[in-house]
Amino acid sequence: MKPTTITLALTEKIAQWIVSGQYAPEEQLPGENEIARTLESSRTSVRAALQNLAGKGMIIIQPKKRSTVAVIEQWNWLDSDVMRWMSGVKSSDRIITHLIATRLMFEPNIAALAALNATGRDLAEMEVGYEMMRDGRDNGCREQFNQGDIYFHRAIIMAAHNPFLVGLGDLLIATMELSFSNTLEDDVSLSGPALQEHWDVLEAIRLRNAKTARQRMREIVLASMRKVLPHDPDFVSLIH
């Protein structure tokens, strides 16, 4: 393995320790030598991995002290790796609230732009995503449903034909994936209402009704919120 590949692999391992809660915010990580022994690697590679995580705001490195896990507010949530790592774990209600707020800021307005700018090819791509979701529901396959969901939302981002939003596409999708992993029903057969909501967005975009597309997408995001935080007082402020 190339040194850079080793460093990336170590970065992934240590990041998983953190996002899984094995080491909590403000808790010290093991020393470099101990990590090197545990992960069967060199101290130099471990140090490089820790520097990677420090650059993402996940840990604090201090001279002659063990690295400390940073509080989550200091993490770089615009970093796609951070979002990817978090998408694999069950997040706190606080994180989910922030995610839903972020989605509320972007997704409804992206859907409105898509209604104004979508081409026939864009609509066909949205239909592909919708059909993947429908087939996933019919086949009882959650993974297929999730893939279709992501495909659908990515197609809407592309249909906005805004270069700045397209540039943010991967980040927005990572945000959606993290939100989806914490809000979707375990039983994919219960996803009928979600399918209808996505179809309504698609139809609004097809009819170039920006106002309806914005509203329908907002309803999708809020429906996700209701599934995980039905009694959260902050939820009311997000609706209004």
UniProtKB/TrEMBL annotation:
What InterPro entries is this protein classified in? GntR_C, TF_FadR/GntR_C, Tscrpt_reg_HTH_GntR, WH-like_DNA-bd_sf, WH_DNA-bd_sf
Q: Which branch of life, at top level?
A: Bacteria
Molecular function (Gene Ontology), one example? DNA binding
Keywords, in A-Z order: DNA-binding, Transcription, Transcription regulation
Per UniProt, residues of the HTH gntR-type domain are 4-72
Matching entries from Pfam families are given as:
FCD (PF07729), GntR (PF00392)
Per the record's keyword annotation, is Lyase included, yes or no? no
Entry-linked PANTHER family:
GNTR FAMILY REGULATORY PROTEIN, TRANSCRIPTIONAL REGULATOR, GNTR FAMILY
Protein name as catalogued: Transcriptional regulator, GntR family
Provide the species name.
Answer: Photobacterium marinum
